[in-house]
Specification:
Elements (H helix, E strand, L loop, with lengths): L2 H30 L4 H7 E9 L2 E4 L1 H12 L2 E16 L2 E14 L6 E15 L2 E15 L20
Parallel strand pairs: 1-6
Antiparallel strand pairs: 1-2, 3-4, 4-5, 5-6
Length: 163
């Protein structure tokens, strides 16, 4: 193996580690509950598209608003991601993994809502590191009654479509 090939392999391993770390930190951030502009910039490109159970939104500000409203419905959460298969092509990558999310409702009932499925994520390398440019959470099953997302405040970005 020559030095150029070793450098390519090292870059591929480093990219995989950085992408895995980004995805793990994203899920942990949902449980920590600090969903603000810094959070949005740390994980998403400005023109991100996110397909979520509540609908599809476009743009970092829309993701921030929608995730913030959705996470406010829960008192406590635990989000687990597993086994992402990562494919890297230069400055672009895809990751497909499993996700299990457990939520304690914030309505005082202490009821638990669980969802499981897979995530399909597209990422791009930016000057600040890898960022999510598109993501889709595809729910395979749920247990419990999901809370209803409150209506968006006037002027807030709305999901493009609800399921």
């Amino acid at each position: 193996m020559d030095i150029t090939e070793m450098q390519r392999e090292l870059r591929a391993l480093t990219d995989r580690a950085e992408i895995t770390d980004l995805l793990d930190r994203y899920l942990r951030s949902l449980d920590e509950g600090v969903i603000d502009e810094e959070w949005a910039r740390a994980f998403h490109t400005e023109d991100v598209t996110a397909e979520m159970p509540v609908g599809t939104v476009h743009g970092r500000d829309a993701v921030l608003a929608t995730v913030g409203r959705a996470m406010a419905l829960f008192d406590r959460t635990v989000h687990l991601g597993a086994g992402p298969v990562i494919e890297i092509d230069g400055d672009r990558a895809t990751a497909r993994g499993a996700q299990l999310s457990t939520h304690v409702l914030a309505d005082g009932s202490e009821e638990v809502f669980v969802s499981a499925g897979r995530t399909d994520t597209e990422l791009v390398r930016t000057t600040a590191g890898w960022r999510i440019s598109a993501t889709a959470l595809r729910i395979a099953w749920t247990q419990g009654t999901p809370p209803r997302l409150p209506e968006a405040p006037a002027g807030a970005p709305e999901p493009a479509a609800r399921r």
